[in-house]
Specification:
Elements lengths: L2 H7 L8 E10 L1 H8 L5 H7 L6 H15 L3 E2 L2 E2 L2 E3 L8 E6 L4 E5 L2 E5 L7 E12 L5 E10 L4 H14 L16 E2 L8 H5 L1 E4 L2 E5 H19 L16 H4 L2 E3 L6 E4 L1 E8 L1 H7 L13 H4 L2 H14 L9 E4 L1 H9 L8 H10 L9 H13 L10 H7 L8 H6 L3 E5 L2 E6 L3 H10 L3 H36 L3 H22 L8 H13 L2 H60 L5 E4 L15 E4 L1 H30 L1
Parallel strand pairs: 7-16, 10-14, 15-18
Antiparallel strand pairs: 1-9, 1-15, 2-3, 4-8, 5-8, 5-11, 6-7, 8-9, 11-12, 13-14, 17-18, 19-20
Helix pairs in contact: 4-17, 5-14, 14-15, 18-19, 18-20, 18-21, 19-21, 21-22
Keywords: Membrane, Transmembrane, Transmembrane helix
């Protein structure tokens, strides 16, 4: 397709062998609030949307498609919105240059590949937009479109494009001990997709992919956050600048030690009739059932790849063997001379039992290798056997024979990406000129992403609560611990269950995919684990609190008993006074000169006949009363501050 023709006509035709790649960045509700100085509530966005750039155009064209597939209504209103950016209406065109050689490490070997055509410069169209959620979180989305051919160089470019956002199978340069980890926007990380994939755009030339993303985000965020209604910064806090570095959180990329990546998720939408038919063959005319993939992915096609790679292994003992996939290897891959033994008649006959057999070069084998690797984010896709290919081309939809006969689409998912293959999609045609992807796939993607990152934030908050409760419990301050649980239940807990999306999809196909995405992203598992952890800790705290309360009750019973004893002492004092009167003849002189004046109970006469027992009873009673009062005050203070 001619990009210039599409620009002049105001629309872009969706063509065969094209990929629509959406990179979605997530900005948490807390960061949005910190940047604006106020919560981004739905009523504010509802009033703001029609007047902000081309947002009304996006709303009118795309949101009805969202509402068609999903029940987005809450209390009679839809509280999620599309917002425009500074990106031109017809999209922004960037030039992306890949390296001619790419190297990666896996399974103890270092592979170096130079597929023909990889190093050329390619033009991609980009559309950018915002999606706001009901709780005030915001997604920033960049949709790239690229037309490709079925060649090794193009397949490796598509894989590199995916690796730029999720660089598995690569190793970062070493960092000095104690230094900060590498970030995706750094200049030289040692990670080929981050360093060597170069972008030229209207905002700058010779940038890395993530430097281009950061530059576009900064321009769009400055414009949006500068025009949204502002609030005063909360006391003791600093307003966040609306930039990529402050708004977009980073998280360790566990597949590459020493690297942190912006929190993001990926959506790929392939419109490719050949790929679609490979993954979902046409039904047999007699049975109406598609042939199984086991019939199409057979050992005889893939064993030669394994043998060819084994022949490239270096001889002798080395720490990390290097496998160089050079010109001779790629000539063999493209032409497959090992299949020249078959005649045209044999190949035609083979199609009856093996529908994937297109020609003697067996390009179907190369395509299966690529799709299997791409679905699992594996750049080492040439190094797979049939069992790995079958596993990686087992879709999350269709999942049944009945669904397969409908031949709508084929969807795959891994922890970071949702990938769809279609022969043709009317919904893509309808929304491509606005959001650059299929709106139905995008809704599954954006709702799953929001739930996942909300769950991760909720998980972090829950562990903070557990740490606080353990600290308070170790100090015996169980009342404060119980109050922390109550604050959590009425705050973060309530907010999480209020703002997390349920399965809002109207159609069975999308509803099933969403449920599987929930499982794959660990949303349900994390949620159940957190709930059990919190409930167990809360139960233990309540149990300890109850046991202490019972102990306090026992102590109070003892105190009441002590008061009874005190009453007995009062009675004893009365008898002591009586005994003193009766024993004057046997009295003794007791000197009370050591007694402080405020405790002098002798009426000022310090030399009077007292009975020894009377003296003992009097001061024993006084000492016990004072000790009892001190103990009561201590118990009350302890209960108050617990």
């Amino acid at each position: 397709m001619s990009e210039m023709a599409g620009m002049h006509q105001g629309f872009e035709e969706c063509e065969d062998k094209s990929v629509y790649f959406t990179l979605s960045l997530y900005i948490s509700q807390k960061n949005v609030t910190a940047a604006l100085g106020r919560d981004l509530d739905p009523e504010t966005v509802r009033a703001f949307q029609p007047g902000y750039r081309g947002s009304k155009r996006l709303r009118d064209a795309v949101e009805p498609l969202f509402n068609d597939i999903a029940d987005r209504e809450r209390l009679g209103a839809v509280d999620d919105f599309l917002l425009d950016t500074l990106c031109p209406q017809n999209g922004e065109f960037i030039e992306v240059t890949a390296p001619s050689e790419i190297a990666w490490s896996t399974e103890g070997r270092r592979f170096i590949a130079t597929p023909p055509g990889l190093g050329k410069t390619r033009t991609l169209r980009v559309r950018r937009f915002w999606y706001t959620h009901a709780n005030g979180a915001v997604g920033y989305h960049l949709s790239f479109r690229y037309n490709y051919d079925h060649t090794p160089g193009e397949f490796y470019f598509l894989s590199l494009l995916q690796k730029a956002a999720a660089p598995k199978e690569f190793e970062a340069n070493p960092r000095p001990p104690g230094s900060a980890p590498w970030s995706a926007t750094d200049d030289r990380t040692g990670i080929a997709p981050l360093d060597l994939l170069r972008v030229k755009s209207p905002h700058g030339s010779d940038q890395s992919f993530w430097q281009y993303v950061r530059g576009a985000f900064d321009l769009d965020a400055e414009d949006l956050f500068g025009k949204l209604p502002q609030g005063a910064a909360r006391r003791g806090t600093t307003r966040l600048a609306p930039t990529f570095d402050t708004l977009v959180a980073e998280a360790p990329f566990i597949e590459v030690p020493g690297l942190v990546m912006p929190v993001s998720r990926l959506l790929f939408f392939f419109e490719d009739a050949t790929f679609f038919r490979r993954l979902l063959p046409e039904p047999d005319p007699e049975t109406g059932v598609p042939p199984p993939r086991t019939l199409m992915v057979q050992e005889g096609c893939y064993l030669p790849y394994q043998q060819k790679l084994a022949g490239l292994n270096p001889q002798g003992l080395v720490d990390v063997p290097e496998v160089r996939m050079g010109a001779d290897y790629w000539h063999w891959v493209i032409h497959r001379p090992d299949y020249d033994q078959f005649t045209d008649a044999q190949i035609e006959e083979g199609r009856k039992t093996r529908p994937a057999m297109d020609d003697r070069r067996r390009q179907d084998c190369l395509q299966y290798l690529f799709m299997a690797g791409f679905n699992q984010n594996i750049i080492d896709f040439m190094n797979q056997d049939p069992s790995e290919i079958l596993d990686s081309t087992d879709p999350i939809y269709p999942a049944t024979e009945e669904q397969a006969t409908e031949r709508k689409f084929v969807r795959f998912a891994n922890p970071r990406a949702l990938t769809t293959y279609v022969e043709k999609a009317r919904s893509l045609e309808a929304a491509n000129d606005y959001i650059g992807t299929c709106p139905y796939a995008f809704m599954i993607h954006v709702v799953s992403m929001h739930n996942e990152f909300m769950t991760r934030e909720y998980e972090a908050t829950a562990f903070e609560l557990i740490d606080e409760v353990e600290r308070l419990g170790n100090k015996g301050r169980l009342k404060r611990a119980a109050e922390a649980f109550y604050a959590f239940r009425t705050g973060d807990y309530a907010g999480y269950y209020r703002d997390r999306y349920m399965n809002v999809f109207r159609y069975d196909t999308e509803a099933e995919v969403f449920e599987k995405m929930t499982q794959l992203r660990g949303i349900g598992r994390r949620n159940d684990y957190i709930e059990r952890l919190i409930s167990n800790m809360e139960s233990q705290t309540r149990d300890r609190e109850a046991r202490l309360a019972k102990k306090d009750e026992t102590s109070m019973s003892l105190l009441l008993g002590a008061l009874g004893v005190f009453g007995f002492f009062q009675l004893a004092m009365m008898w002591a006074d009586k005994l003193r009167d009766l024993s004057r003849n046997d009295g003794v002189s007791v000197s009370l000169g050591w007694m402080p004046p405020f405790l002098d109970l002798s009426g000022g006469n310090l030399d009077q006949p007292w009975n020894g027992f009377s003296v003992f009873v009097l001061y024993a009673s006084m000492g016990f009363t004072i000790a009892l009062i001190i103990f009561l005050i201590w118990r009350l203070a302890r209960g108050f501050f617990r």
